């Protein structure tokens, strides 16, 4: 059994295949000539943009045999709506679903029913025992249908689906398991004009938030976040930090190393932390970009 994951951001698709030996057996990255943001906006009524996206994926993987593969697709978090609200869990599943839809309708009053929702209970002690901060992820069904059409043209059946930031949690729990046994991890997705931030334990998601910023203002935004963490009993107890992402990761690594001198900061490289299959070991051209592939690796590991 192998798992291949496709990680889709605005103008880049990354591919990772991991086999049953936990070896990376295929890796590629394609910069597209079109924008997936535009594709998701127009693809409902424009088959040409769907065909263009399908052709890019097909050309990247046309020589691969998928008979024994599980296919996973990742979307950049910017393509989803993510929010956190407190929910009373003693009232049952129908009430929870109703509460989530009601909250979503405040942001999308005209089409809130056109979303697919998943939710995650956060493990903190801010409220009464039966009330939990709840993170929910909502994706427009039109986007999911466009992805389904693209993959159908490529003759690929989706077996796994996730948002990029949350797939990274699997990588951390697999590769940094000894560190998590009695500790908590703060991990940050570094993207253009956005940070995705989570705090996790060995079996729990304790906190999530995203921070928007412009250009070099990220230092001020991260500094404000760390100040908030230090003053919040529910957040301040993280023991190490993991960074990944497309933008500013080296700069942020260096800044956090100074800002948090007593905390270990990791910038993972799956191409050295996982085994490489012989056919990619000597030809890998992404050795300096390992942390950009962390979400794709996390989803691929989920499929094994």
Radius of gyration: 20 Å
Q: Which residues form runs of ≥5 with pLDDT under 50?
A: none
SS field, number of helical segments: 11
How are the strands of the biggest sheet laid out side by side? 8-4-1-2-3-14
Average pLDDT score: 91
Order of helices and strands: EEEHHEEHEEHEHHEEEHEHEHEHH
Shape: globular
**Termini separation:** 7 Å
Strand content: 25-35%
| Fraction of helical residues | 25-40%
Strands, count: 14
Q: Describe the oligomeric state of these chains in a short phrase.
A: single chain
Largest β sheet strand count, sense and barrel closure: 6 strands, mixed
Output the structural class: alpha/beta
3D architecture notes:
The protein has 304 residues and is α/β, with parallel strands linked by helices. The protein has eleven helices and 14 strands. Strands 8-4-1-2-3-14 form a six-stranded mixed beta sheet. A five-stranded mixed beta sheet has the order 11-10-9-12-13, sandwiched between helices. Strand 10 (194-200) and strand 11 (205-212) form a beta hairpin. Helix 2 (47-61) crosses helix 4 and helix 5 (164-175) packs across helix 11.
């Amino acid at each position: 059994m192998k798992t291949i994951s496709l990680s889709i951001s605005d103008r880049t698709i990354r591919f990772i295949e991991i086999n049953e030996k936990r070896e990376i057996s295929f890796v590629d990255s394609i910069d597209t000539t079109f924008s997936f943001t535009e594709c998701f906006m127009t693809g409902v009524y424009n088959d040409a943009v769907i065909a263009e996206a399908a052709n890019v994926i097909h050309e990247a993987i046309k020589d691969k045999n998928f008979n024994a593969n599980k296919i996973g697709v990742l979307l950049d978090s910017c393509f989803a709506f993510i929010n956190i609200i407190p929910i009373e869990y003693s009232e049952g599943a129908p009430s929870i679903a109703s509460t989530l839809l009601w909250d979503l309708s405040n942001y999308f009053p005209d089409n809130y029913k056109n979303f697919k929702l998943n939710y995650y209970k956060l493990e903190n002690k801010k409220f009464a025992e039966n009330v939990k901060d709840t993170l929910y992820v909502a994706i427009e069904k039109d986007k999911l249908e466009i992805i389904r059409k693209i993959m159908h043209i490529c003759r690929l059946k989706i077996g796994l689906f996730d948002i990029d930031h949350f797939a990274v949690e699997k990588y951390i729990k697999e590769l940094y398991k000894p560190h998590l046994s009695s500790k908590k991890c703060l991990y940050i997705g570094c993207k253009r004009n956005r940070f995705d931030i989570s705090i996790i334990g060995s079996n729990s998601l304790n906190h999530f938030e995203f921070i928007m910023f412009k250009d070099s203002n990220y230092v001020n935004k991260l500094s404000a976040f760390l100040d908030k963490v230090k003053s919040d009993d529910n957040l301040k107890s993280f023991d190490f930090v993991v960074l990944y992402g497309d933008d500013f990761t080296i700069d942020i690594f260096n800044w956090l190393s100074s800002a948090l001198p007593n905390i270990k900061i990791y910038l993972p490289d799956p191409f050295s932390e996982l085994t490489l299959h012989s056919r990619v070991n000597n030809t890998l051209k992404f050795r300096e970009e390992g942390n950009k592939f962390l979400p794709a690796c996390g989803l691929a590991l989920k499929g094994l």
